[in-house]
Amino acid sequence: MRSLPVPIPAADDDKVIEALCEDPIFARGRQEWRAAYAAYRAVGGDPWAIDPLDVEKNLRDTRYKLYDGRRNSADLRAIRDDPRLNSCPMCGSPVIGSLDHYLPRATYSEFSIMRANLVPACMHCNSSTKGKTHRGDAEPERFIHPYFDAWADGPVWQVEIDGPYHAATFRPAPNPDLGEPRMTLVSFHLKNVLGKQFKISTVHLWANYHRTLAVNLDDYALDAVVARIDKDRQIAEITAGTNSWEAAFLRGLRATAPAIEHVRTRLLEFVGHG
């Protein structure tokens, strides 16, 4: 979950259409195709504002297949393998290396190879619920768009930690400072992009964070523990991303005083001060 620059200028995306329309099968839909690209940019890919083009099945299927022949091209690899990415822009996972259609090409074949519709992602985001739907039951439920939702560069979520803390449970939740309609949008996004690996990662962080504190602290007073949580969150935001799993976990921990007390108790037991 983060904001990224659109991979190529709009004019260059449109040139791809013009080149393809030298083929008669595409030429007859040129104007509608270009208009669809313009509409996509105007509303930032919002699926509540864009209806799929109603075209004959042969043209729809041919547009759908355009991506298959280009998925390993140099320009698409550059989006997928961008070395500046430190976590999945869709879910915050530390694993990336895939490419996802923001609006699914099965529904919107006209955006099959539109660069503004192709976002870097992890394999889970590309094959999970995110790959099967594009919006919720009611507006504004949709996914965060890495290219058009610039506000996603700020902290948009945290992991809420519920007791009893010896068997804690974890809930991804939108940042309460977002306000509506973004809180509803982020709630939908979190529900549909976070899966089993997120749960495993969070359980692991919770089970071992007191050991991390033991390595980094000499003073085990509450104020020192709180200050270290703040520092670890800042490090996670810089190295893994503002909305990475680790950063969201540490934001949630910092906001939950009883959870901090539990971690500190485990820390004291671990270092032999209990």
Describe this structure in words.
By secondary structure, the protein is mainly alpha-helical. It has 11 helices and 4 strands. The strands form 2 sheets. The chain has a two-stranded antiparallel sheet. The protein has a two-stranded antiparallel sheet with strand order 3-4. It is elongated and about 80 Å long. The two termini are 39 Å apart.
Reconstruct the topology from this structure:
Layout: H1 10-20, H2 24-27, H3 30-42, H4 57-65, H5 74-80, E1 98-101, E2 118-121, H6 123-127, E3 157-162, E4 169-174, H7 182-193, H8 196-216, H9 222-239, H10 245-254, H11 257-270
Share of helical residues? 40-55%
Total strand segments: 4
Number of structural domains: 2
Low-confidence stretches: none
Intertermini distance: 39 Å
Order of helices and strands: HHHHHEEHEEHHHHH
H/I helix tally: 11
Summed over residues and divided by their number, the pLDDT gives a mean of: 92
Largest sheet: 2 strands, antiparallel
Give the strand order, joined by hyphens, for the main sheet. 1-2
Structural class: mainly alpha
Computed Rg: 22 Å
The global form is elongated
What amount of the residues lies in strands? 5-15%
Index terms:
274 residues, mainly alpha, 2 domains, two-stranded antiparallel sheet
Précis, in short:
This protein has 274 residues and is mostly helical.
